[in-house]
Amino acid sequence: MTNREILLTRRRFSRKRILRGPYYRIEMATPAADPRDFLYKVLVIGELGTGKTSIIRRYVHKAYSEHYRATIGVDFALKVIQWDENTVVRLQLWDIAGQERFGNMTRVYFKEAVGAFIVFDVTRGATFEAVLKWKNDLDAKVHLADGSPIPCVLLANK
Ligand SMILES: Nc1nc2c(ncn2[C@@H]2O[C@H](COP(=O)(O)OP(=O)(O)OP(=O)(O)O)[C@@H](O)[C@H]2O)c(=O)[nH]1
Ligand SMILES: [Mg+2]
Asked: Which SUPFAM superfamilies match (predicted)?
């Protein structure tokens, strides 16, 4: 090897170059300058058989079934929304069994939720009358950091 070849080889493998290389590639591979990821816990509550599980299955899995299987306790589903180029929103949907209004687990299930849907069945008046009971239970057991009630949407189903 001539002196010139040794010099070129040293330059090619210099510490500075090796360190600089990977950093450059990482920058190129990350288009989002400020990627943001938000996770929200959202409750879906309401009387037995009003369609809470069906709504969630449709929204998350794009599926529907006429077969009714009562939810026992609580089920979970995750809806991932690519909000914009830099923002991902994850909705952690808590599908709470209608029969839980008579149980004592709702305090645990409602904890740290930041939003809720209350579902009723337009063909069964009693499920609408129960909406207020669900709302009162919700407001008694969970609130936002500033003490205000969590945002809640009333859903008329069927
Ligand atoms: N016709 C009609 N039926 C529906 C609709 N949504 C749900 N159902 C039916 O209603 C029944 C109950 O639906 P679910 O989604 O299991 O109700 P749920 O609120 O999760 O019930 P629980 O888990 O017991 O609290 C099922 O047989 C569904 O197929 C709707 O929009 N229209
Ligand atoms: Mg259900």
From this structure: P-loop containing nucleoside triphosphate hydrolases (SSF52540)
Token duo for residue 92: 């952690």
* This prediction's pTM: 0.82
- Contacts made by residues 145-153, CB under 8 angstroms, sequence distance 24+: 150/113, 150/114, 150/115, 150/116, 151/114, 151/115, 151/116, 152/115, 152/116, 152/117, 152/118, 153/115, 153/116, 153/117, 153/118
80 CA to middle of ligand 1, Å? 23
Q: Which ligand sits nearest to residue 76's alpha carbon?
A: 2
With cut-offs at 50, 70 and 90, classify the pLDDT of residue 24: very low
